[in-house]
Amino acid sequence: MDLGIAGKTAIVCASSKGLGRACAESLAAAGVTLIINGRSAETLEKTAEELRAAYDAKVTAVAADITTEAGRTAVLAACEAPDILVNNAGGPPTGDFREWDQQIWNDAVNANMLTPIFLIQATIDSMIERGFGRIINITSGSVKNPIPTLGLSNGARAGLTGFVAGLARDVARHGITINNLLPGPFETERLQGNIAENAERQGKTFEEARGARLQTNPTRRFGRPEEFGAFCAFMASQHTGYMTGQNILVDGGAYPGTL
């Protein structure tokens, strides 16, 4: 399928590895010019080189912490008027809410709620002027199916979800869609780290904890990042102009609800 976005420009946050990189890869394959971002300059440049080689893509790498004002300024300096914005940032730590002080909460809300909002604020008016925009926020399946140990994520991402619900309807008439993409368990470093933490907490081996986690998903497997990336690229395409304000689960059927 031709996604109809060749020649468009996209900012993909936190895209040196994991699900962010998978999104960047699929957009590069669709002919999109990329501004990618990550904290590690070495890892980010390696990703940029691989995307250029694999897809003959135009890629600008901006090493910066997207959750800081300076980081956002650096990324926007490379592209102040993207056609596509993929908001993404590392999730906050797991744990017991009794142990979280105000600074920990502030960090979670800043990274997973305020940072996406600030980037939307900085880019949406130029999208309105051009009559086209695709904003995709990578959140989490825990928005619809909260996980007790992910309380920081549950709270911060739910705040973003509420904000987007109102804004998406307000700008839809300008050809802009804003949707949230909610991953379930995917084969990423973060998932492996969460499994390791749970294994230690439960007194199990990593393999035991991983096996138990696999059994909780109807597919009996974890998602592949490239599956997620392909879905992100479709949401950024010309074919999704009539879908906005939605929370799209990509979780192997893990969410048990009907709505």
Total strands: 7
> What portion of residues is helical?
40-55%
What's the number of helices? 8
As residue ranges, the low-confidence spans are none
Backbone structural class:
alpha/beta
As a percent range, the share of strand residues is 5-15%
Distance between the termini: 28 Å
Describe this structure in words.
This protein is an alpha/beta fold and 259 residues long. The protein is 47% helix and 14% strand. It is built from 8 helices and 7 strands, in the order βαβαβαβαβαβαααβ. It has a 7-stranded parallel sheet with strand order 3-2-1-4-5-6-7, sandwiched between helices. Strand 4, helix 4 and strand 5 form a beta-alpha-beta unit. Helix 1 runs parallel beside helix 2, helix 1 packs across helix 8 and helix 4 packs parallel to helix 5. The chain is globular and about 55 Å long.
